[in-house]
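Memo to structure team: turn this sequence into structure tokens by end of day. - J.P.
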Amino acid sequence: MIPVDLITGFLGAGKTTFLLRYAAYLTARGEKLGVLTYDHGAVNVDLPLLRALTARGCTVETIAAGCGADCLRRRFRTRLIEMGMAGYDRVVIEPSGVFDMDDFFDTLAEAPLDRKYEIGSVIAIVDALTDEHTTAEEDFFLASQAAGAGALVLSRTQLASPEQIAATLAHLRRAAEAIRAELPGDGATVTKPWDKLTDADYAMLTRCGHGSPDYVKTVASGRQSIQSLPYLNLPLGRQALIERASALFASDGYGRVLRVKGFFEEDGAWYQLNATHDSCLVEPVPPTRAALLIVGSELNEDAIGELLTGRKPVLHIL
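Reply from structure team:
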């Protein structure tokens, strides 16, 4: 049986960054690794980052996730069937930040996947600086993903005070209580900065197992209000993108923006932009395609488009 690990976590928690570290540990042990990933919406802007995995001998498969919940489940199941014939020692899945945990547990329980795979480790990444002012829907995803996990790994702890970490964990417990979910115990919560993680820490995570997927489902599958807007080939450099990302988070006129991420070119070099309500990170990446993804709820597409492109929306008179 091939173990299937799931790296989950809400939008902007740092799943892709952790995946790169986790895969580096597994491939260093000699494991043949298959990675399956998809993003929220039709454009996967994290794909260029995952090219580093192919250099380690991993095979990276993606799913276009902008096709609706039922279509996504079919693609998820089909891709796992295909990967089951590739001779992997382990498969690692990194889904969207608004992933329905039932899709993981239910799909792996179906034939023929139940004869090929076994559930390995479910690891939930939780931002140590999680916003206190989250909606009930956002809390549902935070809590349901954590409840299905065998271990919690906090991100950005190097930027957080002990009080902020404690506040995030208290927030998560309240969110779990609201849907009657059980969280992993304290011994399965990793709060070290990621550059301090040891082989022993990663070894623990490879065998942490999973939690209970039983909770009150307050958000129906495929019914979440969180949406994404992709923009390709924007002629914007670093400063312009940072300013516009800040504007998106600062004004309610654009909707409730949760994350801005993408890639841009400047002076012949390529960079990744990754912004949330309290941070904006720009890092160099290999050459790719200019793309930007805006993720949030009740997004004002006209206002966002005008901010990013400088063009007013076209009015159609019927």
